[in-house]
Amino acid sequence: MTKHGLTSTLREVPVEEAIGMVLAHDLTQIIPGQFKGRLFRKGHRITHEDIPKLLDIGKAHIYAIELAEDEIHEDDAALRMARALQGDNTVLTDPYEGKVSIKSQIHGLAQIHKPTVDAINGLGDIALATIKTNTVVQPGQSLAATRVIPLITKQSKMEEVERLSAALRNPKSQADQAVIQVRPFIKHRVGLITTGSEVFHGRIQDKFGPVVRAKVEAFGSEIVEQRFVTDDLVKIVTEISYLRQQMCDMILLTGGMSVDPDDRTPGAIRQAGAEIIRYGTPMLPGSMLLMGYLEGIPILGLPGCVMHDPFTSFDVLLPRILAGDVIEEQDIIDMGYGGLIGC
Ligand SMILES: Nc1nc2c(c(=O)[nH]1)N[C@H]1C(S)=C(S)[C@@H](COP(=O)(O)OP(=O)(O)OC[C@H]3O[C@@H](n4cnc5c(N)ncnc54)[C@H](O)[C@@H]3O)O[C@H]1N2
Ligand code: MOO
User: Fold this and answer.
1) Ligand with minimal distance to 289 CA
2) Where is the MoaB/Mog domain (predicted)?
3) Which residue from 56, 110, 189, 190 lies 20 to 30 Å from 254 (Cα-Cα)?
């Protein structure tokens, strides 16, 4: 019995009979003047092709580990864990040195269930490292890696990982979720309203529209129409109604979001009948952003920094909305912790 409560034993085996067995120690090869290093590492599972290589370094016998009934090799354990964790739009790498990576197959939004990740890492002997939930990922990007710390571990640990993962699954319901999955972006028809008399009267060129358009298009959605309007509450409300009639399924307004007398945008969004989730978002930059819903469609007031700063509260909310999340007040509150980007 080892400190991990294992009962596996060491056995001396002729190499010809060792296929499929697990090497109990590193094996070093030395070719004078050319190479000195590890030929096989401890834990390697011996294959048919290994036999001549072992005979070449003078090994007629090796020490192999014989697993007890309730034990599992690190590679099998890592794979079994990864299979239990993986959900939609993910692929697994082959196990290597007790590690399996879970990667995204698509451009989408990573969804990682933190309470389950924490519970798994609480079990001991196994490590599950993940990226943060709601991260935008590209095809091939790693989402998580599982690793078994000892060479051999108890099957019961894997059963616990499978039990924790299965507890989240509910295939017949909307709430069905894997511990690690990626959601695709849904194509939205976005309407854009650019406020500001200086832009409307042509005193300055619109710099906001191109920035917002590029961000929306990066997720596969489109700006179907951009409307320009002065700092007039009634006129802004009229433009919101117009875009609603054009069957836009998301409305964005730029400018006029702070405290100057000409900042009419938050008032207009309210006047249009939107439910305001939050005006004021605890992130810098992006603190003056307004998140609301108008007849169920997302409506956002974007402050000036969205045009200027590369990453703001808009870059947190936009991918979530386009992946189909309905933003609640708690989501906005949660953005403050870690939300100081620089301003
Ligand atoms: N006393 C306070 N002042 C400011 C606050 C505050 O809380 N209290 N917040 C600051 C923050 S944070 C931001 S962000 C800005 C918010 O700006 P607004 O959204 O109100 O933007 P505007 O005042 O309309 O314009 C700011 C600036 O950007 C130019 N602009 C606006 N739209 C366009 C466009 N489409 N193309 C080109 N340039 C544009 C505009 O001419 C102004 O120069 O407020 C801070 N102040
Ligand atoms: O809302 Mo400002 O938008 O933080 O720079």
Assistant:
1) 2
2) 191-323
3) 110
Ligand found nearest the CA of 265 = 1
Q: Which ligand is nearest to the CA of 192?
A: 1
Pocket test for ligand 2, best of 278, 279, 312 (most atoms within 8 A of CB): 312
Q: Tell which atom from ligand 2 comes closest to the C-alpha of 283.
A: 4
Only one residue has tokens 């989501």, namely: 331
- Considering only residues 173 and 244, tell me which one the structure prediction assigns the higher pLDDT: 244
Phi, psi dihedrals of residue 333, rounded to the nearest 5°: -60, -40
Work out the average pLDDT over 60-65.
89
Query: Residue 255's pLDDT band (boundaries 50, 70, 90)?
Result: very high
- Structure token digits, residue 267: 């008032």
Please provide the DSSP assignment of 216-276 as one string.
HHTTT-EEEEEEEE-S-HHHHHHHHHHHHHTT-SEEEEES--SSSTT--HHHHHHHTTPEE
- The CATH number for 189-334, chosen from 3.10.450.70, 3.40.980.10, 3.40.1280.10, 3.40.50.9100, is 3.40.980.10
CATH number for domain 71-184, candidates 3.40.50, 3.90.1150, 1.20.120, 2.40.50: 3.90.1150
198 CA closest ligand 1 atom index: 41
